[in-house]
Design brief:
Layout (H helix, E strand, L loop, with lengths): L1 H29 L26 E2 L5 E3 L5 E5 L1 H6 L3 E6 L3 E5 L7 E2 L3 E5 L7 E6 L6 E12 L4 E3 L4 E3 L3 E4 L2 E3 L7 E5 L9 E6 L8 E10 L9 H5 L8 H8 L2 E2 L12 E3 L3 E5 L11 E6 L6 E11 L26 E4 L2 E3 L9 E2 L9 E5 L3 E5 L10 E10 L3
Parallel strand pairs: 1-17, 6-8, 18-20
Antiparallel strand pairs: 2-3, 3-5, 4-5, 7-16, 8-15, 9-14, 9-16, 10-11, 12-13, 12-15, 19-27, 20-26, 21-25, 21-27, 22-24, 22-26, 23-25
Pfam families: CUB_animal (PF26080)
Keywords: Signal
InterPro entries: CUB_metazoa, Sperma_CUB_dom_sf
Length: about 400
């Protein structure tokens, strides 16, 4: 009995030593606490696994599925689907069921991926509260699969545009048609953020109001760190919340492919796409947000093709730079503009404006720019009938032919 016991103890010590050495070596070679997740292409495998028990990885993107009825769902175990009040509608690989959920008005959710659809009967106010999925959550991605509210009320005499029925989140107030749009919000749980509220308000209760939003809690990767024996073998020590324990032993999410650079309210991750202003007939007033586009690895350039462009302007014959964005602001002066970093006209490289307003761009015109691929849109609180917005297609391509 005794020799056998000693053999078991020796085997345990050898295994523990081997695992610890492997983890230490892994962290020595790959630790890089200064790496930025925003523009780095460092593999996600180089980031912290938090514990040896969390080996499997899946991304928030892979949680998405299509139900057997063609609607958007989330891959969950059958138990978790039922626990969240969802309905299993088909299967997704070997992971579980494609769960159709719908957060109701007034409800609170801490799920990783949340689907929000309009109720049959519109209330005066409908609020949804998002609480943290984990302490690593740093952003919220809100995707507007469908979004249609009443159009804003425009007053040409007063020069105002007001959303009656409206959607409020962060610094955004939206109405009208915005299907296909998306918004990123900062949600730094580690810094103390506790919740985000999405609110629909319906003073007019327009009967055709409808929405289908997908809200994803995105987790920032954590830099690797050296583990002591205690938190290598017992990662759950010090945890007091049952939900925390469940998350420790569950598959860890890696949201690398979805995270936006800090400060970006919109982030286009594909090498081609179309960027549009919010609102289908007229763009929204009092918006101030940054639009970012993911670069390709290595040297690259971006080409913009204008589909539509019409903003207000103070001048009637000059629509660039200081005529759009005056250095000295005065009350009542038009201050709507689209800023495009490092842009130049493709057919005239001597034309390199940064700020565009009025009728600065016409359909079919092309611009080229170098990284960073960013835009900034600003709209004031004044309205005129020319404020129909912009639609610009882009293509990122390698600079090495």
């Amino acid at each position: 009995m005794v020799p056998s016991l000693w053999k078991i103890i020796a085997l345990v010590l050898i295994c523990a030593h081997t695992i610890r050495c492997a983890l230490w070596k892994d962290n020595v070679f790959y630790n890089n606490v200064n790496a930025s997740y925003a523009y780095s292409y460092k593999p996600t495998q180089d980031m912290d696994d938090s514990s040896m028990f969390r080996q499997a990885r899946r991304s928030a993107a892979s949680d998405a599925c299509t139900t057997n009825e063609g609607t958007s769902g989330t891959c969950l175990s059958r138990f978790n689907c039922m626990r969240q009040g969802g309905i299993p509608k088909g299967y997704c690989s070997t992971y579980g069921v494609c769960c159709e959920t719908n957060l109701q008005c007034g409800q609170v959710s801490s799920s990783k991926r949340i689907i929000i659809k309009n109720p049959v009967q519109l209330p005066t106010v409908c609020q949804y509260v998002i609480t943290p999925y984990s302490s690593n959550v740093c952003q919220l991605l809100i995707e507007f699969e469908q979004f249609e509210l009443n159009q804003p009320t425009n007053d040409a005499t007063l020069g105002t545009s007001t959303c009656g029925d409206r959607f409020l989140v962060g610094d955004f107030t939206l109405c009208g048609e915005n299907s296909g749009q998306h918004i990123y919000l900062p949600y730094d749980v580690a810094a103390g953020a506790t919740q985000v509220t999405l609110e629909f308000s319906f003073p007019t209760k327009w009967a055709q109001s409808s929405w289908n939003l997908i809200v994803t809690q995105l987790e920032c990767p954590q830099p690797k760190k050296r583990f002591g024996a205690s938190n290598m073998v017992m990662p759950f020590m010090g945890q007091t919340n049952l939900q925390d324990l469940r998350k420790i032993f569950s598959a860890k999410h890696s949201d690398w492919e979805l995270l936006a650079p800090p400060g970006c309210s919109q982030y286009f991750r594909q090498p081609t796409g179309t960027i549009k202003s919010f609102g289908d007939i007229y763009y929204m007033e009092n918006l101030h947000y940054t639009i970012c586009i993911r670069p390709l690895p290595g040297p690259s350039v971006i080409e913009y093709t204008v589909n539509k462009f019409s903003l207000s302007s103070e001048q009637t014959d000059s629509f660039y730079d200081e005529n759009c964005h005056p250095l000295i602001l005065t009350d009542g002066r038009q201050n709507d503009y689209l800023m495009i970093w490092n842009a130049m006209f493709k057919d005239d490289a001597t034309m390199q404006p940064t700020y565009f307003c009025g009728q600065a761009l016409s359909a079919g015109q092309e611009l080229v720019a170098t990284a960073p691929y960013q835009m900034y849109f600003n709209s004031d609180d004044q309205w005129s009938s020319v404020e129909t917005g912009f639609s610009i297609s882009y293509r990122v391509k390698s600079a090495i032919s």
